[in-house]
Structure to design on (69 residues):
């Protein structure tokens, strides 16, 4: 998801909740990337990947509250 940097800065300055939500989004994104870069995943890692992807998607839908899609 690409967000306009000016809009991102504006919303982060106005809302601590959004700032926290966006930071969590970045952390989840990095974890998914780590898991995707692994050659093989254990069943536990596969489950973690799916869980993290769902959490990230839930956060993405929350962005719409702030006018970001």
């Amino acid at each position: 998801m690409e967000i306009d940097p000016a809009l991102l800065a504006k919303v982060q300055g106005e809302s601590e909740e959004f700032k926290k939500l966006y930071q969590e989004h970045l952390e989840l994104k990095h974890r998914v990337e780590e898991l995707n870069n692994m050659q093989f995943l254990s069943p536990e890692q596969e489950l973690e990947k799916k869980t993290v992807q769902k959490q990230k998607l839930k956060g993405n839908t929350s962005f719409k509250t702030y006018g970001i899609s």
Summary: The longest helix spans residues 16-37. The chain has one domain: 5-66. The chain has a mean pLDDT of 90.
